[in-house]
Design brief:
The chain has about 500 residues and is of the alpha/beta class. The chain has helices at about 5-20, 50-65, 70-75, 95-105, 125-130, 150, 165-175, 195-205, 210-215, 235-240, 240-245, 250-260, 275-285, 285-310, 340-345, 355-360, 365-375, 385-395, 410-420, 455-460, 475-490, and strands at about 40-45, 80-85, 135-145, 175-180, 205-210, 225, 270-275, 315-320, 325, 330, 420-425, 430, 435-440, 450. The strands form 3 sheets. Strands 5-6-4-3-7-1-8-13-2-14 form a 10-stranded mixed β-sheet, sandwiched between helices. The radius of gyration is 22 Å and the shape is globular. The chain contains 21 helices and 14 strands. It starts with a helix and ends in an 18-residue tail after the last helix. It has 2 domains: about 25-325 and about 430-470, Alkaline Phosphatase, subunit A, CATH 3.40.720; about 330-425, no CATH class. The longest helix is centred in the middle third of the chain and has 25 residues, at about 285-310.
Length: about 500
């Protein structure tokens, strides 16, 4: 029997939705073995490839003389380590919406949608089920509070970019602790509909805070904390800007506050902690941004682990939703002797790519590019290298034929690879399996390979709960509905409705 290319493509796409539930029986309440956790802390380094963990470890060994915290965890016999398959309903490569929705409802979803199928079928969320059982819930992030990953545990929406609508939905979702960025989606002066969500949250009993000191001084109770107009600044920018340090709490500080406010309830809590800027740096091919935000994420993980060690009743799961950018530290020079010195030079970078491109401007000369890079990154670019960057910013990329390498961020990263030796494959997500580590009661279920949608059943089973959402939609069925509805669902939104300052739209 002959098989056409078309049928192979169809079978491949269909296979995205038909992967068996490898450990479905283990994730049933009645089959749970051992102690059940009272609390669950789910830690997400968004967009984190395994190479980012590796490079963060190299970097901390070089600059601080110690292993990274996640590396230390993986050396412990009481920590389970495995991998996660991240694919979505619509592609081998997932976006954050479909990935977080898989965790949040146990079903693979179309990229760009959260806890809903393309035919409009709504899926019940993890947090809705948990709250009905008297379990407290929390979301902490360095993105907007309305971004895809924090939304995945609580929100049902057909277009992840409708962030103004997600902010309003958070009001009715009753999550106990909400900490992150995104003032423009809550502030009446910035919303086109002039709706004052801060006032409405306060009326529901939330403590509303907008700066670091106010957060750190809080007593117990429900919290809405929003600390930036859009996403929280990169850690590398925070390190070099006292005003950011004063205004914006670290992810570790937000995590600690959330845990302190959620603990103590008789039915426990579930908390998601997201280091979202790891992904944004990957989209920008910004290695300093990525490493420093990975370290900041691991500082927050340390807060969670230290609580779990003292508490003895908390399961901590640490993973990513997908990888981004395909970064790798490359061998360079004779016998690769230039690699270590080049990588060490990242310690001299004083800004993320955003401020660097802002300083370079829209119509730079090679000399202007050289001056900015020397000031903010310490590298002395050759004139030809600087000219390539200047040309790309003005729409004349020397790599115009390369679909995944022609953008200004890509060209800057390609040039900088000559110096710090880290290369990226694109500005987009990649299909890598991602790392999973777990500590505490139930961590044994995180060994080996776990499909992303299985974490929903795992977390429910850990709490003695069970829920079956509508059956998994097939790719063919979903594609038919999406073809009919995509223009309405993914229509271009007005700026006030969405975050336009992600490093690229493929988030």
């Amino acid at each position: 029997m002959s098989v056409s290319r078309r049928s192979l493509l169809t079978l491949g796409a269909a296979g995205l939705a038909s992967i068996p539930f490898a450990r479905i029986e283990a994730f049933q309440p009645q089959a749970w073995k051992g102690k059940r956790p009272k609390n669950i802390i789910f830690c997400v380094a968004d967009g984190m490839a395994l190479q980012v963990v590796t490079m963060a470890n190299h970097y901390q060994q070089m600059t601080e003389g110690k292993h990274s915290f996640w590396t230390e965890l993986m050396e412990r016999p009481d920590v389970a380590t495995g991998f996660q398959d991240t694919r979505s309903l619509s592609s081998i490569v997932t976006d954050s919406a479909a990935a977080a929705g898989a965790w949040g409802s146990g079903r693979r979803q179309w990229n760009g949608q959260i806890n809903v199928y393309p035919d409009g079928t709504k899926l019940r969320t993890l947090y809705n089920i948990a709250q009905e059982a008297g379990i407290k819930t929390g979301l902490v992030t360095t993105t907007t509070m309305t971004h895809a990953t924090p939304s995945g545990f609580a929100v049902v929406i057909d277009n992840r970019d409708r962030e103004a609508d997600i902010a309003a939905q958070h009001l009715t979702n009753n999550v106990d602790v909400l900490l992150g960025g995104g003032d423009k989606f809550f502030n009446a002066e910035k919303r086109k509909d002039k709706r004052d969500l801060y006032k409405e949250f306060a009326a529901k009993g939330y403590q509303v805070v907008k700066d670091r000191n106010s957060l750190l001084g809080l007593k117990s109770g429900k919290i809405l904390g929003i600390f930036s107009d859009s996403h929280v600044p990169f850690s590398v920018d925070r390190m070099n800007d006292v005003s950011i340090q004063t205004q914006v709490p670290t992810l570790a500080e937000m995590a600690k506050t959330a845990i302190e406010n959620l603990k103590g309830g008789k039915n426990g809590f579930i908390l998601q902690i997201e280091g979202g800027k790891v992904d944004h740096a990957g989209h920008a091919n910004d290695i300093a941004g990525q490493i420093h935000d990975q370290i900041a994420f691991e500082d927050a993980v340390k807060v969670a682990i230290e609580f779990a060690e003292k508490d003895g009743e908390t399961l901590v799961i640490i993973t990513s939703d997908h990888a981004t950018g395909g970064p790798s530290l490359n061998g360079a020079g004779e016998e690769y002797g230039d690699t270590t010195k080049g990588f060490a030079s990242i310690a001299g970078i004083k800004a993320s790519f955003g401020p660097i491109f802002d300083a370079i401007g829209k119509k730079p000369t090679a000399s202007m590019v050289q001056d900015v890079i020397r000031e903010k990154m310490t590298y002395g670019l050759k004139e030809a290298e600087a000219q390539a960057i200047a040309d790309t910013i003005q729409g004349k990329s020397p790599f115009g034929l390369l679909e995944l390498q022609k953008a200004p961020q890509s060209v800057l990263a390609l040039i900088l690879q000559n110096y710090h030796k880290v290369g990226y494959t694109s500005l987009n997500h990649t299909s890598d399996h991602v790392l999973v580590s777990a500590f505490g009661p139930g961590s044994q279920y995180c060994h080996g390979m776990t499909n992303n949608f299985e974490f929903f059943n795992l977390m429910l089973a850990a709490k003695g709960l069970k829920h079956e959402n509508p059956p998994q939609m097939t790719f063919e069925e979903a594609a038919k509905h999406m073809e009919k509805n995509k223009d309405a669902v993914f229509a271009e939104l007005e700026p006030w409705q969405t975050s336009e300052d992600c490093s690229c739209h493929q988030h």
